[in-house]
Amino acid sequence: MWRSRLYAPSGDEVAVAAAAEGAVDLAGLFPVLWTTGDPKTLYAQLLVDDKGIGAPVVLIPMNTPNLARSDGRSVSFPAQSARAKTYAGVRAWVDRQVVMTTSLGDIRFRMRPDKAPNTVTSFVDLVEGGYYTDIIFHRIIGARAGRAPFMAQVGDPTGTGSGGPGRFIDLEPSDLPHDFGVLSMARTGNPDTNGGQVFVCFSREGTSFLDTQYCSFAQAVEGADVITALETVETDDMDFPADPPVLQSAKTIPAPPFGTEDAPLERPAAVTER
Description:
Elements: E1 2-7, E2 13-18, H1 26-29, H2 32-35, E3 42-48, E4 51-52, E5 57-63, E6 69-70, E7 75-76, E8 87-94, E9 96-102, E10 105-111, H3 117-128, E11 135-141, E12 151-154, E13 182-185, E14 198-201, H4 204-207, E15 216-222, H5 224-231, E16 246-254, H6 269-272
Antiparallel strand pairs: 1-2, 1-3, 3-4, 3-5, 5-8, 6-7, 9-10, 9-16, 10-15, 11-12, 11-16, 12-14, 13-14, 13-15
């Protein structure tokens, strides 16, 4: 039996409908997509005999964005009134993961469009366009006296820390905690300067202060050894690596069926004990 199920990111089932081969009218199958008063990101998954088949379709509501405000020290997102928030429909996006091939090995990331949809789609667009090809990790901050391991930054084709893809997107209010293996967008002091530079977090202790201030949008599900290897790269006093690791390429692959994703990586105990 073929069925389509609609899931909340939490895994809760929102709706179910019969499915058949061929084109699918999701709005017809799932009226909740256009009748709800508070649209949220949902996942549509095809099941055959109750087994998920293929990557889910991410249904991203096209809501009026909530823009960040900065006082020069921190960023906040003022609450939107119902009148200021317009729901214009749904953007359908086939879920995928991203594999970064580095000179130290591969890291596979699960995208989190439920946390930061515009950031995810912008990042994936850069990946699929070949932007992340032969770019060095230009800034690495591992463990230091009195400070937990921080992060490794990449995404500037010039290798100086000042370059980017020639475009910015607004900061999104992601509530995904910064932690080991989380991928987040780098920016300047202006919250809306998110471009192509990203950073991989080394520890919760070293990155928790970034929560809600920077846009976290993906979680590593494979490649813990590569992340810990990045952490131990020697750098100068300006955090520039003596022998910079290279992000050789990045590619997208289909995400697994909803509910079968690998768990986010945890920081290895052996590294914690150093």
